[in-house]
Amino acid sequence: MTHAGNLTSADRPIGVFDSGVGGLSVLNALREELPHERFVYFADSAHAPYGERGDAYVGERSGVVARYLLETHRIKALVVACNTATAAAIHRLRADHPALPVIGLEPALKPAVALSRTKHIAVMATRVTVESRKFETLRASLAAEATFHIVPCDGLAGAIEQSDAPRIAALCEQYAGAAGIFGSDAGQIDTLVLGCTHYPFIANELRRHTGEAVRFIDTGSPVAQQTRRRLSQTGQLATQGEGAVLLLSSAAPESLDSATSRWLALPAGPARLAQTAIAVTA
Ligand code: DGL
Q1: Has residue 7 been placed in a domain?
Q2: Which of 14, 150, 189, 253 could disulfide-link to 277, CB 3.0 to 4.6 Å?
Q3: What does the pLDDT look like over 264-273, one tens digit per residue?
Q4: Tally of domains within the chain
Q5: Which atom of ligand 1 sits closest to the CA of residue 48?
Q6: Are residues 88 and 162 in the same domain?
């Protein structure tokens, strides 16, 4: 599949990027919401994890990846499928590319407040995300409505990136314990916000520590709906044809390939719509 050449505006692909494989959780929601679109997914795995680096580093990498996707793949919109990169870089990406729809995501605190009964909400995210001004502004705006138990999860995205099951299990136990007591009674945490796009893939492991009744919230579907709205507004929505996914990684592509076969929901059928991951330099 090639994304270059004489494509009409609607035919051009949507760029999606994350520090690594986590954004595949957002790509699943995008593909469900926008079945006719072509996606270029970029995993910046050579520079992952972003979540324990400084803002300047994440901002710089986000800029490099966005330019690469624009110049090489002529994307019509960019989905920043990473809470950390959104927190550190979304303003700059929008300022640098004013004509490009740039859709970011942030931990779903508002939906959590609406759904929680006990109004005790745990938020798991990377350190860069929870220490960002953007997150602090969001949290402060909702402080009167709920108590947030915020846990910076150092090392967890990295362990998921490496499929390191023993480390994932140990960190889930540690961070779920740090959040507090989960349950449905007054004073207990009944809602867990997965504030990093890597975490939906370890929901089962987290579930072992929260119990079945706790509601988990991620941001895939709202972001996909927002992407549809933005493309409709600009007349760039693809409404026919077969969707497709091109997978790119800044590291050796094997880990993206194996994450894709485990986690990317592809429709049954003869066509393998996702191309085997390719390593590129950006
Ligand atoms: N998946 C990313 C997020 O949503 C970042 C993980 C990382 O690289 O630390 O924040």
Answers
A1: no
A2: 253
A3: 876 544 344 5
A4: 2
A5: 8
A6: no
